[in-house]
Amino acid sequence: MKSAHCRARQSARPHILVVDDEPTLHGVFREKIVPAMPCEMLTASTAAEARAAIGAGAVDLLATDLLLPDGSGTALVEQLRAARPDAAAIVVTAVHNVDALVRVVRSGAVDIITKPFSPEELLARVSVALQQQRQRAALYRRLSAMRSTIRRLKAARQIVSRKVDLLCNDLIGAYSDLSRQFDSIRLQEGYRQFIDRATGLEQLLCNTMDWLLRQVGYCNIGIWLASSDTDLQLGAYMKYTVAARQEMNEALQRNLLSVCRRRGFVRLRGADLEAYLTPAEMKFLAGQDLIGMNCTYLGETLAVMLLFRDSRTPFCDEDVAAARAVAPLFAVSLARAVKGADPPPDDADRPSPPESQDPADWWKHGESPPF
């Protein structure tokens, strides 16, 4: 819908500014042009007066003599084009110099009327100029509306683009979270299937260490089992580079294992080792990359598991994820193994399967890893 201002401007009579230092042109317009067509006539005798009228913004058609006492009609045409691009201008002159007339055309005038001319010719040429001005004004109004629409569309596009970016970031974040959850489920399911064949506590420890080595690569693995609410005893240890010496075991029980129980999960390397470990522990673990996990079942610590190797071959994010995934399932399996450690009476005479039947027992016999 057009605004009231635009409708009023379109229905208003056009303003014609007549500029001449002689009254002849003024008289012709007042006597012949104004009575013949609906318009408002403004007059100026000098370039200064004309510039003031143009600056006021009320000129639709400029009719000016080429030579004025204080300037030229060409300069007025250029000023009008700059102030009102939709306005029109005609130049009335007795000059027949080709260069001067070319400059008039280049300034933006829509017509040049040479003297002498008849009132009828002037009326016809002014009528054509006003028709061109109306068409140009309509074009500029459409262009202005298009620019306004484009600005609004650009602002809306920027808003939509920002919302799309936020939505994409949310989707990427959700996909990453979902992917991590699927990876965790995949790891847990793989571990659960791997330990299904474990028939007792020893087999559970063997299979768990075997599965971890397959996931994270060669490293030192130790599993300390809870013998009471506060005590932890070494249940199984897999040597890669550091042997499970009694001195190291005692140092870990005095500090690091307690740290793991309090914090649930630790990742120590570099400066963190010196910050958390005692000198007795640093004697064995300096320069290592270490993962420690508290394995709990129903809020009770059943075991603490440590994995460590030289920091020059550190654990990657996937290794850490695998360790985190196995800890809760190991605790559940450990609780079941401990609870079912004594076989039922009717199975008391049933022989246990030989240990050599399980591939996860390779480390107990000094064999090479099967992977």
CATH superfamily of the largest domain: GAF domain
The beta-strand count equals: 12
Count of separate structural domains: 2
Q: What is the averaged pLDDT score?
A: 83
Order of strands in the sheet with the most strands? 2-1-3-6-7
Low-confidence stretches: 1-11, 341-357
The CATH class assignment of the largest domain is Alpha Beta
Name the shape in a single word.
rod-shaped
Q: Which structural class do you get from the secondary structure elements? A: alpha/beta
What do we call the CATH topology of the largest domain? Beta-Lactamase
Largest β sheet strand count, sense and barrel closure: 5 strands, parallel
Q: What is the percentage of strand-forming residues?
A: 15-25%
Distance between termini? Answer: 78 Å
What would CATH call the architecture of the largest domain?
A: 2-Layer Sandwich
Helix amount: 40-55%
